[in-house]
Amino acid sequence: MDQSVTIPLVVAAILAIASLAVAGFALVRLNRIQNRLVLLSGGRNESDFVEAVAFQVETTQNLGQIVAALDTRVGQLRNAIAGAVQRVGVVRYDAFADMGGHLSFSAAFLDENGTGLVLTCINGRTDSRIYAKGVKTGRGEDGPLSEEENAAIALAMDPEHVHHEMV
């Protein structure tokens, strides 16, 4: 075969192989771009990049509104529970020397600010008496508190205690 004919055929074959390689590379890139476009469009088969971006912007705005509504609701819930009983401390003891079993107790029921009440039950041989005293910011509102009542309040106010009972 003539060398003048062989060289153009070899060049044409090399160009054809190179063209196939470039086409294959372009096809792989196009497939990646299409997959990213589907991802960007939220799984919908959008073919338009601008529509896919518009979808993402709308979704982001909706999420922003949802987060703002949740933030408002969390604030409302925080306000609602601020006055709820959140801290409890119980101290059991023997009120009288001749009594056993730690049947007397003082129990503090406080909100997050240490406001609430302390109940004290003094158990005797023939009867029991229950007293309720107001507490504001961890201190008795209605006069001095007993040692046990102060201990119950201290336990309730201590964030380290999970089970608030002292014997």
Protein architecture, described:
The protein is built from 3 helices and 6 strands, in the order H-H-E-E-E-E-E-H-E. The chain is of the alpha+beta class. The protein has a 6-stranded mixed beta sheet with strand order 5-4-3-2-1-6, covered by helices on one side. A hairpin with a 4-residue loop joins strand 3 and strand 4 (128-136).
Properties at a glance:
single chain; 167 residues; alpha+beta; six-stranded mixed beta sheet; 6 strands; 50% helix; 21% strand
- How do the helices and strands follow one another from N- to C-terminus? HHEEEEEHE
Total of domains: 2
Shape: rod-shaped
**N- to C-terminal distance:** 111 Å
Mean pLDDT: 84
Count of helical segments? 3
Strand order of the main beta sheet, please? 5-4-3-2-1-6
Strand content: 15-25%
Radius of gyration: 39 Å
Helix content: 40-55%
Low-confidence stretches: none
Strand pairing plus helix content: what structural class?
alpha+beta
